[in-house]
Amino acid sequence: MKSDLASYLQAAGHEVDDLGPHSADSVDYPDFGYKLASAVASGAAERGIAICGSGIGISIAVNRNPACRCALVSEPLSAKLSREHNDANVLALGARLTGIEMAKACVDSFLATPFGGDRHIRRVNKLSNPDIA
Predict the structure, then answer these.
(1) Which strand ranges, in their side-by-side order, compose the sheet holding 70-72?
(2) For range 103-127, the mean pLDDT
(3) Which fold has domain 2-14+25-128?
(4) Strand, helix or coil at 92?
(5) Distance CA 23, CA 39 (A)
(6) Is pLDDT at 133 greater than 70 in this prediction?
(7) Is the pTM of this model over 0.90?
(8) CB atoms near residue 71 (< 10 Å)
(9) pLDDT for position 16
(10) What are the two backbone dihedrals, phi and then psi, of residue 72, each rounded to the nearest 5 degrees?
(11) What is the DSSP letter of 19?
(12) Which residues are catalytic?
């Protein structure tokens, strides 16, 4: 799924920085989630796409970084709402659970949707700062 989505995004004119892994060998997905989270948090990447078998573990790893709001989705409406309501900056997908065409639709929705702002700003700020009352 990772290589298919990278090719799809490049063909659409997006810059893709593949942070790995670069083989089918078993890896520790938190290492790659942290790497992606660091790229987004530092501003090296505006948004990211995280992929693992179910999408669950990688999304948990990315969300350990307070600057990241990673949403695990399996269909385009959730991808849209993650951007519109939660200002998600990382999309997580489960490669074993989501087909490639559905994944492309999720990515398209995620990238095309702006943050809604307004009433959502206060809540989004609390996501990275739980001490805000």
Answers:
(1) 48-52, 90-94, 70-72
(2) 90
(3) Ribose 5-phosphate Isomerase B; Chain: A, (3.40.1400)
(4) strand
(5) 21
(6) no
(7) yes
(8) 24
(9) 96
(10) -85, 120
(11) -
(12) 52, 85
